[in-house]
Design a protein that fits this description.
This protein is an alpha+beta fold. It has 3 domains: 100 residues, 3-Layer(aba) Sandwich (Rossmann fold); 70 residues, ATP-grasp fold, A domain (Dna Ligase, domain 1, 2-Layer Sandwich), CATH 3.30.1490; 240 residues, ATP-grasp fold, B domain (D-amino Acid Aminotransferase, Chain A, domain 1, 2-Layer Sandwich), CATH 3.30.470.20. It is built from 15 helices and 22 strands. Strand 10 and strand 11 form a beta hairpin. The structure holds adenosine-5'-diphosphate. Adenosine-5'-diphosphate binds next to strand 6, strand 8, strand 12 and strand 13.
Length: 449
């Protein structure tokens, strides 16, 4: 086992990894920008190294600075968290070339899954059901129009390197194809340096269901059920729950086995998420994330496992601590993402936290790097906390979420907390009847003006 690991990240996810390391008796090294000198992850880690100025590109994304920080501190492995360098295959290669261990999958797996076209092709060959659409990239507008007719409108044009909801445009009909095609290409180029796009049938009422998988890198893999992340704004998740209110035990076992088998066959290492759209009882693969997800705590809650601990163990060459038949669901869990944003526009609101009080009690977990007097820097994303509840069943989890939100105090900046108070009053949320478009429609009618 490692003596010391470095966390190439910040905020709540850096704390999450530091906590797992400490419980395992592993020393932790935080890295930080000059904007984060007073950040909680720096305070909580055993050691810290300043790696550059505030912009991510000069600090949390600076590969030479991170490798140097490992060399200076003697850290043997790097946990990337999510975002930043977590899905950068070149980074993983450099880490390995320096004799360090990347806590995550291989560079090759990240490369294959990071390109959505090769990911889809790989998964299709492994027997995973996919959304109908173009076979591979679409080179020009004429071809895009031909595929639009073939697949049937509406369709969605997606940048193969896209992520975070960027580089996706819907064409409702042939007349909208030119704009969708050019915009998706331009967004792919400007955000990800790659203008290759592909086309999929646009599903009109799906749910977003993702399967948590975990592999040992030696051909063994398990699944840890699904998370329903359908409540989204601009293709970004806002509220997640597990198990999914619409998924039966039989469906979970079936799609879970397909996913576990697929990742086992490619000798996948560590945590991964296979994302699907789910409509009329069918699953359609959209992408795989080769890292820990923001919403991993709801899976941890219902399965009673520490996914970060398992990631570290498998990276150190140990066996997985669980087998498929030992993984049983206990209760229901919900996570809400708390952002420093002003409603209704969701405009980022960095600033000073004048008062912070985290909720507590049975079945409540608050993953946050906030503290009284902390100043949220303007340079990074606006997620400031995740409130996770766990209860014996869904109605109890909703009641617990309402109670916990009532205890939470964040003063000094505006947050998305009022959104969750409002959503918990909605009949569709209470019954679990929602799809990926529900929240956008609701925001339009309820938060306008
Ligand atoms: P990203 O990598 O940006 O997260 P994804 O491919 O995971 O992109 O898609 C994100 C979200 O976009 C999905 O959860 C869903 O809401 C929507 N989406 C993606 N593909 C389709 C599709 N074929 N039909 C309908 N909605 C889609």
């Amino acid at each position: 086992m490692f003596d010391k690991i470095l966390i190439a990240n910040r905020g709540e996810i850096a704390l999450r990894v530091i906590r797992a390391a400490r419980e395992m008796g592993i020393h932790s090294v935080a890295v930080h920008s000059t904007a984060d000198t007073d950040a909680m992850h720096v305070r909580m880690a055993d050691e810290s190294v300043c790696i550059g100025p505030p912009p991510g590109i000069d600090s949390y994304l600076s590969i030479p600075a991170i490798i140097a920080a490992c060399e200076v501190t003697g850290a043997q492995a790097i946990h990337p968290g999510y975002g930043f360098l977590s899905e950068n295959a070149a980074f993983v290669q450099i880490v390995e070339d320096h004799g360090l261990t990347f806590i995550g999958p291989t560079a090759e797996h990240i490369r294959v899954m990071g390109d959505k076209i090769t990911a889809k092709e790989t998964m299709r060959l492994l027997g995973v059901p996919c959304v109908p659409g173009s076979e591979g990239g679409v080179p020009n507008l004429a071809e895009a129009k031909r595929i639009g007719e073939e697949v049937g409108y509406p369709v969605i044009v997606k940048a193969t390197s896209g992520g975070g909801g960027k580089g996706m445009k819907v064409a409702q009909n042939a007349g909208e194809m030119e704009r969708a095609f050019q915009t998706a290409r331009a967004e792919g180029k400007s955000n990800f340096g790659n203008d290759e796009v592909y086309i999929e049938k646009y599903l009109t009422t799906p749910r977003h269901i993702e399967i948590q998988v975990f592999g040992d890198g030696k051909g063994r893999a398990v699944h840890l059920g699904e998370r329903d992340c359908s409540l989204q704004r601009r293709h970004q998740k806002v509220f997640e729950e597990a198990p999914g209110p619409s998924i039966t035990e039989a469906e979970r076992a079936r799609i879970g086995a397909v996913c576990a088998d697929a990742v086992a066959r490619i000798n996948y290492t560590g945590a991964g998420t296979v994302e699907f759209l789910y409509e009329n009882g069918e699953f359609y693969f959209i992408e795989m994330n080769t890292r820990l997800q923001v919403e991993h705590p709801i899976t941890e809650a219902i399965y009673g496992v520490d996914l970060v601990r398992e990631q570290i163990r498998v990276a150190a060459g140990l066996e997985m601590d669980f087998q498929q038949d030992e993984l049983k669901i206990n209760g229901h869990s919900i996570e809400v993402r708390i952002n420093a944003e002003k409603l209704p526009e969701f405009a980022p609101r960095p600033g000073k936290i004048t008062q912070f009080h985290a909720p507590g009690g049975l079945g409540v977990r608050m993953d946050s790097a906030l503290y009284d007097g902390y100043t949220i820097p303007q340079y990074y994303d606006s997620l400031i906390g995740k409130l996770i509840v766990h209860a014996p069943d869904r109605p109890a989890a909703l009641a617990r979420l309402k109670r916990a939100l009532g205890e939470l105090i964040i003063d000094g900046v505006e947050t998305t907390v009022p959104l969750f108070h409002a959503l918990l009053q909605e009949e569709d949320i209470v019954t679990g009847e929602y799809n990926i478009h529900w929240l956008e429609h609701w925001l339009e009618t309820n938060l306008r003006g």
